[in-house]
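Database export, one record per block. Field names are fixed; values are copied verbatim from the stored entry.
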Amino acid sequence: MASYDYDLFVIGAGSGGVRASRVAAAHGAKVAIAEEYRVGGTCVIRGCVPKKLLVYGAHFAEDLHDARRFGWDVPDCRFDWSVLRDNVLAEVDRLNGLYENTLNSNDVEIIRERATVAGPHEVALASGRTVTAGKILIATGAWPVVPDCEGAEHGITSNEVFHLDKLPRRIVIAGAGYIANEFAGIFHEFGSQVTLVNRSDQILRGYDEQIRDRLLQISIAKGIDFRFNAAFQKVEKLADGSLLIHVTGCDPIPADALLYAIGRTPHTRGLGLENVGLELDDRGAIKVDEDGRSGCDSIFAVGDVTDRIQLTPVAIREGQAFADTQFGGKPSRVDYGCVPSAVFSQPPLAGVGLTESQARDKFGNVKIYTSDFRPMKNVLANRNERALYKMVVHPENGKVLGLHMIGPDAPEILQAAAVAVKAGLTKQAFDDTVALHPSMSEELVLLK
């Protein structure tokens, strides 16, 4: 049998790569993982974790305002971006250390340099050293897309937004997906003037139409400006350091910062994949089978680099399944059906299963049940925002095909409800459950 330096070599220490490394090592494999930046990947270092902390910070703007209606004598408050920024980055540092400790405690060797594929069993390190491995796992994630226009270098991406020196008075956000809408809500609550520019005429493509339309209505009412069917032409940097952003269909937009949130593409460029003839799709993603195996039998990939579902929990499950299958003698595959997702906008939305349009395409005349209500807290706070819960039901057997909602704590509520959808429960099972009153979640068993 061939002898290698490692049983497994992982390129990329994000959520999927760390899970695969830790589990494979626990199964007895000799494992090394290479990371050129920091351990933790997009989610921990520059994605969902620090962003959610900013969301928490943004919530205080409305909570402090609403508190007066609940009898609290709240003085006028000043927000200090630098305090929140530095505390968030300190938490990222802490989590980075915990991830490193996890790898070290499982005897995974951390190689702190760039690694590329040199052959079916060979990895080239930036230091000039070449190592061998029985199996190679690519878990390099995805990278923000930057538009191809004059002056594009004057904008930033979600990689840099957490490090801003100061809060921009005016910010333009390019895109209309979950990252764009989340940061639009964050910066608006912090007091910035927010303009969201999108090349199409809709936000949050892929989410249920009624839910995303409700978010658009609420966002506009709050004062977030939307420019639709607008393509970037050029970005000018003026003498005072501000920007003038030229897009089609409207006058140039003055801003102090420009954030690109127009999508993320698989991070495969420069990995040496051509050395083993790996096939990529038209977005640059590595094509893999149900076990994460590429066209080269010894090379696998998990997470965003495969562009299946770009969500951290999916990458973690893929890493777990890979390690259990290849090193644990426990073959397993990830089930991509009924994966819940959320947008931590203001207010947040969440969904699982089929949207109404997807269900109609598949089953025809499906049954739709909704609850459009004003949360109790909003009533006393004299806030007019309404929540919307929606259930999509099979026309014949009553099985719940999808649940979609927007309103306070929607993601927290949906996680539990997603179990019911995944289990194939019917609308009658919801109806038969006694409501937990008074709560927002009780609307799920009262839908009409």
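Remark 1: The chain is about 30% helix and 25% strand.
Remark 2: Residues 347-445 form a domain with the Enolase-like; domain 1 fold (CATH 3.30.390.30).
End of record.
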